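At this stage, I put together one protein's amino acid sequence and its C-alpha cells, which the following lines show:
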Amino acid sequence: MQPFERYFYLLGKIILLILSIFATAFLLLIGLKFLMQGLDYIPWFTYGYMCVMLLIPPVFFSTVFIIFWKRTIRYPGKVIRIISFAIFLFFILGWSTVLISDFVIFFKNNFGDIVKYNAYNLLYLSLTILFIFITGIMQALGMPKEIDWMEKHRMGSE
C-alpha cells in the first residue's frame, strides 16, 4: 500500500466510525422512545413511577436529617444540640406529613404532574436545604477551633 492509500483507508474508517456512533445513538433513542410509549399503556407502570417520584424528596431529606441526628447526639454544646434536635424533628415530621399527604392526593386524584404535590413545593425544598446549612454552620461555629498542622508542629518543637 502506498502512503496515500493508507491515509485514504484510515480516513474511511474514521468516517464510518463517526457515522456508526451517530446511527447507534439514533437507534437507541428511537428504541427508548418506543419502549416508553409502550409502557404508557401499562397502568401499573404509571403508578409505580409516580410512587417513586413522590418518595424521592421525603426519603432523601429524612435520611439526611436522620444522619445529622445521629451525629448531633455526640455534639458537646447542649444549647446547640437542643436547637439542632428541634430543627431535625420538625423537618422529619414535616417530610413524613408531606409523604402521607402526597400519597393521599395521588391515590384520590391521580395527578400525573409533580407540581401538584407538596414534595415538590419549591419553598419547602428551599427551606429544608437552608436549614440543613444553618444547622451545619451553627454546629461548626459552636465547636472549638481545631489546631492545624503548623501549630501542632510548632507546639511539638517547643
User: Anything to note?
Assistant: The helical segments are 3-39, 43-72, 78-109, 122-142, 149-157. The first helix runs from residue 3 to 39. DSSP finds five helices and no strands in the chain. The radius of gyration is 28 Å.
